[in-house]
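Annotators were shown the component list below and the corresponding predicted structure, then asked to write short factual statements about the assembly.
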Amino acid sequence: MDFYFQNPHPYPYHHPHNSVSMASSSPEIEALSDYLMLDDYVDHQDSRSSQSAESSEKATFRGVGPRIAFRTKSELDIMDDGYKWRKYGKKSVKSSPNLRNYYKCSSGGCGVKKRVERDRDDSSYVITTYEGVHNHESPFTTYYTPISFLHSDTFACTNPTLQTTN
DNA sequence: CGGGTTTGACCTGCGC
DNA sequence: GCGCAGGTCAAACCCG
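Structure shown to annotators:
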C-alpha cells in the first residue's frame, strides 16, 4: 500500500462529541496524529510502508472512489464520524497482528466502505480507511451543518469529491 | 420485530 | 493448477 501523510486531514470529522480534527475534549481521543492519503497512482514514495507485507496488500481493495486513511490515537476502535456504519466482516491480516474490521455505510444506495484496524507498530493508534464518496449528507448534518468547518482554511477539503456539501 | 453484530464459508486475485 | 491472503456474504445471533 502506498500512502503518505498530510496535515490537516480534509475529511469531515465534525461530530461534536468525537471531534477528532479539533481540540479533543474526549479522554479517549488524545490527539489526532495523521491522516493518510491513499492513491492508486502514488507509487513514487514509500514513506512508511517499508515492509514487504504492506505492499502485499494489493488491489483487492481497489474500488469505486478515493481512499482516505486516518491514523488516530484512540482507545476506541470505531469513531463516530456522523455516518451510520454496518459491520460486515472481520479479518486477521498477515500484515498486522491486529484484526481488521470492515464497515459499509448503512444508508441505502450508498456504497461507501471503511476498514478499521490498529496500527501494527503502535496499537494505541487506529487506522481508519475510507473508500468511496457518500451520495448523501451525513445524518448528522441534518441538525449540524459544518459550513464554517468546510470553509475554513484549516480544514479545507483538498479533494472535491469528499466535500459533503454540494 | 427490526436493525446491527458475529463468524465461518465462500469468492477472487495473485504468485509460484 | 494450487495455495495463500484479503475481501465479502449471509445465516444465526443479539439487543433495544
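Statements collected:
1. The helical segments of chain A are 52-55, 147-151.
2. Residues 56, 58-60, 86-90, 106 of chain A lie near DNA strand B (CB under 10 Å from a C1').
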